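note to self — DONT lose this again. spent like an hour looking for the file last time. sequence + predicted structure for the chain T wanted, 540 res
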Amino acid sequence: MAKNISQVKLLFPKPQYPTHRAYIDLFIRMLNKDKICVLERDLEILSIGLGKTAHKLFQSVVEKETLFEQVDALLLGSLKLKVEVKKRLAEFGVELLNDSNHAVIDLIFAQYNVKLDKVQVTKNKTHFKIEIEKINKSKATTEILNKPRLVQSVQNTKQQVDKHSTDMFKAKIIQARALFPEDIYPNYRTFTDFLLQQVTSDPLRISGADMEKLSSAFGSEELALFANLNNHKTIEEKLKHIVFGLLQLKISVKKRLKDNGCELSVTANVTVIKNIKAQYQSKLEAIEARKQHELEEKRKAIEVEIQAKAAERLRVMQEAEAERIKHFSDFPKLGINNIPKHSRTEELLQKLMARPISTDEKKWLDSEGIVSDLIDKKYHLHLAHQHFQNWKQKSRPWELVNASAAYRKAEELTKIKKALDESYPFNIPKNEKKLKSALLTTYGGVCRDLKDYVNSIKLGLEAHKVTPLNFRPCTLLGAVYLSTGEFDLGHEWYDKAKERGFSQDAYDNDIKSVYFRASDEMKNRLKQNLIATGHKYKWL
């Protein structure tokens, strides 16, 4: 966390970014809750004064629950803020532009005794005003420039300026209202709302006479704030005056609330305030109702737009899907989609869905990249049924061995387990030792797959006794013992298997299969054992 805080500070070196470095320092003091604690409300006001990006940064930090999350959010938000400020320095040579509220910034810094070595408060023109000046200068060379295009350019740029001004007005109103949250300052929030209605010519605004009475009822500072509105001509100047005046009031009101637990001063005329507030309550309710109505209308419009877009997307998707199925086939039960119609692949997959395909046909599918676990299981299941029927109908014992192997690969064990249970102990002639060993081994393999390790070991030992030189019973026993955690026995049986012809590659594949079939707890134990016994596999 300390590292992240250091990184945030490094983003804004004091010589280049004095204002934003001071802002970050106050932010860190607020998060750390140091002796000179920075209040969250004050930092929010400062963030709003710095601009939209800083305010978003503040919101992203305070919504986090833990200090670690807040510091991470501060680092991420500061990176975004740095990009914006750096670009501004490169283009205009200043840290702050006109859309920043310098009065607010100075007042908050003064409140916390922040002194800047060099505060770059710019009087530069905004981008839009610069563009208009460029166009106006171009009028002197109308012989060169195309006049209709010039006029259109001026009109477009002025429209942009108008939009920028509207956005600025909204930002100032938000700043003013943010100073006095209604849950903490109900009276001063009402005073603020009435002031803003006066400036913005709201049709539901309070009359000038009543506003003067209300201001006087609050106190001399409030009356002066209202009276001095007339000294400013433009809405922008009036809004700046209100925000700055409210900031000064906020300091007094906040101190009063802290010291006395009362929002209003002792000299305030509470009766007049209540009467005027009640008189205009219906208008306030109408304002709120209108806002709610506008929000609801916007919500409905957005909902209609979303539904229309969703319907259009669905229509496009349905048309695309209809076009696709004209040319491609899907085999969801085999885990394969988008197979071209009338192709050999489609023909073989349709065949596989209904009946067995040959070994060569399966190899061809593999060579074409048409592979999935479901295809393999389906292929082996068809083979298993074939072998099983041959065993049943033609009494061929080896077909039971083949059926067992295929059912195991298809992971369908119920049918073969029942057949093996009923056939055991396999009354095979003494001269058919290989057959009996194979039946015992495959039966043990089925038990192993079903995690019936006791019977699996019993059948493996019995098969080894019948054919002591065959490696297959040894591999069965090795796998079972490794799976049950008896690692020494497992390695011992695998060593016997290798002595009887079990290849190194087959051994490596067997070990891998045992490892990936094991539970997580057994996997950890087996991994440690394999590493300790010198086994070096990339997949470990």
